[in-house]
Amino acid sequence: MQISAFWSSIVDISRLVMVSKTTEAATRVHLEKVVAASGLSPEQITIFCQSEIPAFDNEGNLLLSSRHSIVTAPRFLYSWKKILEGGKIKKKKFQATILKQPGELVGSVCLDKGVPRVTEYSELGPELAERKADDGRLLFCAGSIANHLYSLEFLESFCNNSFHLPYHRASKKIPHVASDGSFVKPTVPNGIKLEQFVFDVFERSKNFYIWEVEREDEFSPLKNADSAGKDCLSTCKRDLAVLNK
């Protein structure tokens, strides 16, 4: 698409692919197969791995992934330096949103004492998440789909060791090795993962906007296995096919 639309351009568009230690190998193998066929140069692709921190059970105890190692999980924190290496954006800060549906597991863009924030669905709670405004829409109706546009100057202001994003608690089903050496694959949430999100820098923005976009054009999440029939690989493929008819 880049070649056909911008064939006369001398600037290559860079792609940054964030992976975890569990997905890195498979992602690299896949990209090696498709990059050449797509007409892109390997130099346009930067793969970077998220750092990881320990996960723990609901009592605060570390969990074992083997007899000699602990369970860790990605922070979900974007690597600022990698983004800046490939970034060419010079715009204001804004966040794309969709009109959230009842029960939808996405964060909500809102104002907290006049400060822009994204509140995770797990932190909002079901009562507030389902509350309606006078016009019948959800009170917290601006669903965050993680489409963000920042200026380089804004991002660079956080590239120092004194700045730290806050951690968010996420209740998860965490496979682990039990004290007797058996492998446990829980069916209900049994522990806590700590996550960091790039949207927590919004509160420091002086020029913040949200842009409501069409769901069909911008949002088809991949969260589940195909057996779920929703927010899975099959629905993503279907939505992309419909969009590009």
UniProtKB/TrEMBL annotation:
SUPFAM superfamilies xrefs: Nucleotide-diphospho-sugar transferases
Gene Ontology molecular functions: nucleotidyltransferase activity
Transmembrane segments: none
Keywords: Nucleotidyltransferase, Transferase
Gene3D superfamilies linked: Spore Coat Polysaccharide Biosynthesis Protein SpsA, Chain A
Keyword Nucleotidyltransferase in annotation: yes
UniProt family annotation: Belongs to the UDPGP type 1 family.
Protein name listed in UniProt: UTP--glucose-1-phosphate uridylyltransferase
Source organism of the structure: Necator americanus (Human hookworm)
